[in-house]
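Anyone? Bumping this.
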Amino acid sequence: MNFWLLLLPSLLAALLAFTIRPYRAFIGWTSAGLSLVSLGAALAFVAQALEGGPTPTWGFVLGPLHLPDVLRADSLSVLLMVCVAGVATPALFLSPGLWGHTRYTPTQLRRYQIFTNLFIAAMLLAVSANNVGIMWIAIEATTIFSAFVIPLKLNKASIEASWKYILISSVGIALAFVGTVLAYFDYVSRGGEMELALNWPVLKAAAPLLQPEVMQLAFVFLLIGYGTKVGIAPMHTWKPDAYGESPAPLGALMASPLFAVAMYAILRWKAVIDISLRSNFTNNLLFTLGLFSLIVAAFSVVQTTNYKRMLAYSSIEHTGLICFGFALGAPGLFAAMLHLINHTLAKSLMFFVVGDIEDHYNSALIKNVQGMAKLMPWSAGLFTVGLFTLIGLPPFAMFTSEYALFHAGFALHHPWLMGVALALLAIIFISFIKHLTQMLYGSPPQDTVNKTQKWGLAILGINIIILVILGITLPTPVRTLLDQIVAIVI
Amino acid sequence: MNDTLFAQLSTLGASLVLLFGIILLWRRSLMAYVRAFQQQSAVLAALFVVVGYFGQAPELYVVAVILFALKVILIPRLLHRMQNQVGIGYEATPYLNVASSVIVAGLLVLLAYVLTRPVVLTSTLPTRGGLPLAVGLIFVGLFVIITRKKALAQVVGFLVLENGIALLAVLGTFGIPLIVELGVFLDLLMGFLVMQVFIYHIQDTFESLDVDRLSELKY
């Protein structure tokens, strides 16, 4: 029942947008309203997970398709559901076409509503699927749906961005499928063919018997594959382009929940493969790629001229940190999951605000955006808070999770790695502050077109409140959920 | 006896599939690309039937039929239609010339043999001989995507890569679970349709299908 409430609303909204043409504002409002149902279902799942008890599952048997538990909601899935639904709701409320003035035509808005909702549905399916094959299918589908929304305005830049995005992501995700097939091959050659072998709990239970050599190869493919989707360097090249060109709410959806979903896929597989390998193989790979991501992020942030691309590089930075966390045992994983929550909150906040800034200034270049503090004080405030969070200033939540992460790193005797990482974070810190001051001060250009305030941005206050609470204390439900996740994975 | 025949047939099939992939490297016309992909898919579908028969996996017949309909009939037809609309193109100057491309392909297949050694050693399947060829085809597909300049050639490279994965799945596991297989086909079709839409957009906006013109976005 709960699964239906989670997955159906966004599909219904997509259907509504598809059947009623031309686009009218009430379609946007309806789909935003429906997303509240999804969010409610996700929160109900959280409550259920916190109570303990049996893990909710759902399935069906239909002819040759024997799928008794195709959907499953353990604590890890539940957390991700909230991350997805929690960003989907503000994204749909702040969508173009709900607040009067818009740069887009009704046809473009109709396409936006259809594919954004399908995109959200695919992400929700990916995190609730029990079968890692179905998880793969859903993640691949996210690429396809989002590729339709990036070039809402057709021009050279947006087409280039989406072509790179779809080609690189499709190839990457295909490689993740190679990894999945190799793991399944390993399972089949140990235990014989089985319809349910790709179910995660089955796979994890069988992991000690699997061949380490084969699983090693499988992990390389899986990490490259899903890593492309996350944007781990050196597979990150599509990211600044796609984030830079997409409409702001889609940027928010891609930068925070989609990022989290792909990270989730890596974590699921790492859990299985670690048991099979009994070595540091996966951790070493994650350390290497994580460090590389930090390096790439630090040097790209310094020379960026576009504030949307700047956010993409910040994403690559946080990818690196979360990779470190995954590789640092139980305390690291705890910190990494907390960091994932914080990143979802802060990065989505940033993209929504950035959408407003872009509407005002009609430019995504830092040099064209001056005097924000005077021209749009509220948005400037939100932007500043989001940026302070992203660079890890207290009292905002990322300070806590980064502190926990580095603490775990030093405790596990990686002083050099952590030292280098801190130095790179310092570079990012300084260049962010530099870009910020450029945007906040100075004299605003005279010919700004659009001066309407978007009062909907007020709902982002919720993000800030949660970020501050998480920065000051760790509430018991969050701690319990994270502890449960660590117990599931390790 | 049966097992030897099965092993021979599957290795033969896998080699043929790989060979059609390598054709992409020495032909220049996009027409030839599409034809090579079509023939490769036909051999692959036949291989699904062979594995289904010898491996006693009847659901592979269903998969073979869908594969045939999709990759031998539907997608090649769409590719031809695309060519009619954007003009028959030639891959005039790929980033790497033919001779070096073929040598690199050989090295890639060799690399595939090295990488899959543990897989082949631990396996007792009669089809294990073809596994390195499948991984080799995946690498060749990747190589085509990287070195070709025409967007359409990149799409064919991607389809060939997909064929490589299908080959790996059928030889290694006698087919992945049916529900996953169906989902993969659905994704493939949708993914292809998206790419098709973008090829038209690229043609319209850039008046060419050369992807090196897509180089505006920096920093």
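Late reply, but here is one note on the structure posted above: Chain B touches chain A through 50 residues (CB under 8 Å).
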